[in-house]
Amino acid sequence: MNTPFDPEPPARGSLLSRLRASFLTGLVVIAPVGLTIWLIWSVVGWIDGFVLPLVPGNYQPDRLLQDWLGLDPEIQINIRGIGVVIFLIFTIIVGWMAKGLIGRSLIRYGESLVERTPVVRTIYSGIKQISETVFAQSERSFEKACLIEYPRKGIWAIGFISTTTKGEVAMRGNDGAPMLSIFVPTTPNPTSGFLLFFPETDVIELDMTVEDAAKLVISAGLVYPNGKDPSTPVPEIST
User: Fold this and answer.
1) Which of 129, 143, 185, 215 could make a disulfide contact with 193, Cβ separation 3.0–4.6 Å?
2) Contact 148, 202 (CB under 8 A)
């Protein structure tokens, strides 16, 4: 005799549905891990392929390891990641030298030469701006996530407060009243978007972190980064 707690008998075609659901669930679990490993492996291989040819043949890591182990030279050893280590050490040394007086002078002299070269200066300046934006220190990152009405009243969008608007834009816009520079990212690629200048009174700062807001944008609203119980009503904000 069946009870209300017994599982319902499987309907026709339910086995295929369960297999399909299990397959999709497996993809959700495997895809992020697999793609992350593949991406890291590919980047490491790309850096190795770029750095290792610059190392003299007698100092190649695989050659040194063969000599140390006494292996046959015909045996190929692929030590993946050594190029990354060499690149990191080289980059740290260059950064340390660039902070000194001599390094800063050499960089300024080199950039002055680049600025006088017609095509190279355009490419260099673009790459330099992108590098400074991507690898900027934390004090130059977005301050907070916010909510704004965009592209019209009644439609809300997630934005990131970059800084307080300054200069001519601040003086000429909003009758001189305080404004904020807001970056509105696109979905699912948050690295592109729009730079908008909003009156400070029209910007609602959110409690969620910038990282959580970015997850919300990337997932197109499917992953809501809120650890609170969604069934719990949101407390009213007193004005």
Assistant:
1) 185
2) yes
